[in-house]
Known about the structure:
Layout: H1 21-43, H2 48-69
Amino acid sequence: MKKTWFPRKKMGFGWGFPNTWQGLLVLLGYFALAMGGVKLMTINPSFVPLFFLYLIVITALLFFICWKTGEKPEGYKPHQEEDNQ
């Protein structure tokens, strides 16, 4: 059985913090790419629209990697209180 890089969130849709070094590397790479885009945007403000497109692309790539290597996300699950009565 392969180990998932990103665990499913307990509540809500999506993934939690990575539970393997590969997942952590992907997340750090995402932040490094995003910060590189911010740096480029500060050099030349005319790159702002291009930056938002770039951010959408790398976020979609992160989402795809999470989808392929993580647990399959489920929908919202409200907190269920235990009946101890």
